[in-house]
Amino acid sequence: MNQDSISLIEQYYAAFNQGDMDTFLSLLTDDVIHDINQGRREIGKDAFKQFMACMNNNYKEQLVDMVIMATADGQRAAAEFVVLGEYLKTDEGLPEANGQTYRLPAGAFFEIRDGKVARITNYYNLQDWIAQVNA
Smallest Cα–Cα separation from 106: which of 76, 59, 67, 72? Predict the structure, then answer.
């Protein structure tokens, strides 16, 4: 496994957990590809910044139980973790928010280029999340 790539992903998630969006975004390439779980593909750091602004407005999340792996050449990485969250504000097309909490297993796949995240693809079970916030 490539320690540089593992360290990059550790930094990425540490910045996320700290709410440090400047550091978080600095770890992305300008043309980053973001494959949203069960959704669309967005390209570019500006699109990712807008996505995160919406997420941070509607949800409060911490990622725990992190396991990170990388290929020997460092070009690909993966992470498995648990999302501990609170649903703060109703997100378009989703159930009504009223501060519900959730615990959701999730994962992500990364492409790394020039020491930065060039692609991130997130996966989680949306039906599990919906069931939790509707409970």
Answer: 67
Per the structure, how many domains does the chain have?
1
pTM of the model: 0.93
Enclosing domain of residue 83: 3-134
CATH value at residue 14: 3.10.450.50
48 with 25: CB under 8 angstroms? yes
Spatial distance between the Cα atoms of 133 and 91, rounded to a whole number of angstroms: 12
Q: What is the pLDDT of residues 108-124, one digit of tens each?
A: 999 999 999 999 999 99
Other CB atoms within a 10 A radius of the CB of residue 73 amount to 9
What length does the chain have? 135
- SS3 of the chain: CCHHHHHHHHHHHHHHHHCCHHHHHHCEEEEEEEECCCCCEEECHHHHHHHHHHHHHHEEEEEEEEEEEECCCCCEEEEEEEEEEEECCCCCCCCCCCCCEEEEEEEEEEEEECCEEEEEEEEECHHHHHHHHHC
Average pLDDT of span 2-26: 96
